[in-house]
Every structure is written in structure tokens, then in C-alpha cells.
């Protein structure tokens, strides 16, 4: 963590929180490496960030693609200083109207399996693939969870997928601690200007209700989360590990 330029891997780095995080590290002189399924989105992000930002397209739910991405990163950069598991998403589907019980169960199984793959498995596979390349000492592993891991979101599959990251992160912190690597979780609340909560992501009435739950009377911004991640990846946060930091304006309190 003492070098002027660090290699920072950010999954889901093409939009929202991931993009804001990549920009924050780039401003600090680091090299963001953006991973995601949509190559065109990543390329636009790299063009916007400029400098040495790099795009590595990969579906992180596919072990073979994760292995290829990790191999490419290893050949190009060698050591990974910071790994930020930000990728995730809502699983579509849900209960089909008027369907038979077996069809409803099949739809539920598909939704929950997809949510697990998007929010949990993607992070687990990428971390495992890059585990031996993490800087020792000084490496940082960060997981982006959600307020839904604490209180649900109306879509139990999503909150459960994010909640599964917490014990995984704590186990990793114990395993990687002897190497001088910290592992932490950041759990955002309502963050505007993202694909989740943008103009088409949530009805305005519900958006206002969510904002009213905060203690500072505003929605979060991608930069709020990005700066928290940036600090946790800094030398100053070297004695913070196995923690969950909530970034939600006080909508969910201290646990």
C-alpha cells in the first residue's frame, strides 16, 4: 500500500457506485480495472475515466470466465492491491399470475438462484480467483452489500444474496489477516443516480418515503459510497477489518 500507483479491481465498475469508485481511485493516481458483463458499458466508463483505466469484460457467475479474467489481470498487473466486489443486481421473475403451484415454485427457485449467483457467487468466485495475487501485506478486499441485508427490500432473494456476503467477508478477514490483508463490507442504503434507484428504478412516492427515513433528509449519492470504499482501502484504515460500514444517512442504525 505504499506504492504511488495501485491496481484496483472493481466489479460492476461501469455504472453507478462502481463507476464513481473507479473515478475516486483514478483521481488518487491508482489504476482502476473494471470488470462486468457488458463490454460496451465498460468501454464507455474507461473512456470517461481516462488515464490508465482498463476494461476486462467477464460474466463473474461463470467460473471459466472468472478464471480467464484473473489470468489476464495477473499477466498484465501481477499484484492486486485492492479488490472491490461491487457487482450485483435484482433477479427478475417472481410469481407468475395464475400459475400452478409447481410453476410458482419453479419461478421462485429461478429467482433465488439468480440472485445468489449475481450477488454472492460473483464476489466469491472473483475473490478466490485473485486471492493469491493480493498484495501481502497491505491488500484490501471490500464487498458492497446493501441495507436490504438488514431489513429486506420487498424482494427477499436480493437481501439474502447480499447478506450472505457478510459472514463470507468475516471468514476471509480471519484467513487473510496473517498476510496483512483487511476485508470489510460496505452496506449502502438508498443511492440515487444508479440503475437501482434512477428515474426508472423506483416510483417517486416510494423514493420520497425512503428519503424520509434518513436523518439528514437526502438520498445518498454514488460518491458517498465511493469515498467510503476509497478510505477503507487506504493505509489509514489498516487496522479496520471484519467490519460492516453502513452508508445510509441513518436510515438503518449501528449494527
Key words describing this protein structure:
255 residues; alpha/beta; 14% strand; SDR_fam; SDR family NAD(P)-dependent oxidoreductase; oxidoreductase activity; EC 1.1.1.-; NAD(P)-bd_dom_sf
Question: Can you offer a commentary on this structure?
Answer:
With 255 residues, the protein is an alpha/beta fold. It contains nine helices and seven strands, in the order βαβαβαβαβαααβααβ. The chain has helices at 16-27, 39-49, 63-77, 101-130, 148-151, 156-163, 165-176, 204-212, 222-232, and strands at residues 7-11, 31-36, 54-57, 82-85, 140-144, 182-188, 244-247. Helix 1 (16-27) crosses helix 9, helix 3 runs parallel beside helix 4 (101-130) and helix 4 packs parallel to helix 6. The longest helix is centred in the middle third of the chain and has 30 residues, at 101-130. The two termini are 29 Å apart. The model has no long low-confidence stretch (mean pLDDT 93).
CATH homologous superfamily placement: NAD(P)-binding Rossmann-like Domain
Task: Round the mean pLDDT to the nearest integer and report it.
Answer: 93
CATH architecture: 3-Layer(aba) Sandwich
Q: What fraction, in percent, of the residue positions are helical?
A: 40-55%
CATH topology: Rossmann fold
Instruction: Give Rg in angstroms.
Output: 18 Å
Number of strands: 7
Shape: globular
Oligomer: single chain
Low-confidence stretches: none
Structural classification? alpha/beta
EC number: 1.1.1.-
Family: Belongs to the short-chain dehydrogenases/reductases (SDR) family.
GO molecular function, one term: oxidoreductase activity
Domain Ketoreductase: 6-194
Amino acid at each position: 500500500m505504499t506504492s504511488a500507483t495501485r491496481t484496483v479491481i472493481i466489479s460492476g465498475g461501469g455504472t453507478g457506485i462502481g463507476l464513481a469508485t473507479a473515478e475516486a481511485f483514478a483521481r488518487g493516481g491508482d489504476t482502476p480495472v473494471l470488470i462486468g458483463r457488458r463490454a460496451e458499458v465498460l468501454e464507455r466508463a474507461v473512456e470517461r475515466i481516462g488515464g490508465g483505466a482498463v476494461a476486462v469484460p467477464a460474466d463473474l457467475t461463470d467460473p471459466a470466465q472468472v478464471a480467464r479474467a484473473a489470468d489476464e489481470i495477473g499477466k498484465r498487473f501481477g499484484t492486486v492491491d485492492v479488490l472491490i466486489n461491487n457487482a450485483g443486481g435484482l433477479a427478475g421473475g417472481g410469481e407468475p399470475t395464475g400459475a400452478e403451484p409447481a410453476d410458482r415454485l419453479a419461478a421462485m427457485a429461478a429467482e433465488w438462484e439468480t440472485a445468489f449467483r449475481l450477488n454472492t457467487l460473483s464476489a466469491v468466485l472473483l475473490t478466490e480467483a485473485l486471492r493469491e495475487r493480493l498484495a501481502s501485506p497491505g491488500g484490501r478486499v471490500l464487498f458492497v452489500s446493501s441495507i436490504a441485508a438488514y431489513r429486506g427490500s420487498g424482494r427477499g432473494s436480493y437481501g439474502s444474496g447480499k447478506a450472505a456476503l457478510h459472514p463470507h467477508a468475516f471468514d476471509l478477514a480471519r484467513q487473510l489477516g496473517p498476510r496483512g490483508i483487511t476485508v470489510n463490507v460496505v452496506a449502502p442504503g438508498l443511492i440515487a443516480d444508479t440503475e437501482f434507484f434512477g428515474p426508472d428504478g423506483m416510483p417517486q412516492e416510494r423514493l420520497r418515503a425512503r428519503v424520509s427515513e434518513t436523518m439528514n433528509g437526502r438520498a445518498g449519492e454514488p460518491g458517498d459510497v465511493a469515498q467510503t470504499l476509497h478510505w477503507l482501502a487506504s493505509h489509514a484504515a489498516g487496522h479496520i477489518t471484519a467490519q460492516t460500514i453502513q452508508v445510509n444517512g441513518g436510515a438503518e442504525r449501528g449494527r
